[in-house]
Amino acid sequence: MTKPIEPMIAEQGQLGHPDLVQHRLRLQPQVIPICDNVWTIFGVSLANCHIIRGSDGLIVIDTGHSGSEGTELRRLIRSVCSEPVRAVLYTHLHYTRGTATLLDGDDAVIIGHPQLDSNIQRTSRSFSGQRNILETGASLPQSGSDAVIAPAPQWRDASAYLPPTHTHLPGDGIRVAGVTIEIQEGCFDSDDGLAFLFPDYDLIAHNLVTGQFPNFGSLAGGRYRDPLPWLRAVDYVCKHPTEYALPCHGLPRSGRQNIAEHFQINHQAIQYLYDHVQAAAAQGASIPDIMQQVRLPEQLAKHPLMRQIYGTAAHAVQAFAIGEMGFWSGEIRDLLPLHPNDEAAHLCQLVGGPGKLLEEAQRQDLDPAWALRLADAAARCGEKEGLRLRAELLRQAALRSSAWTERNTMLSLSRMA
Question: Is the pTM of this model over 0.85?
Answer without folding.
Answer: yes
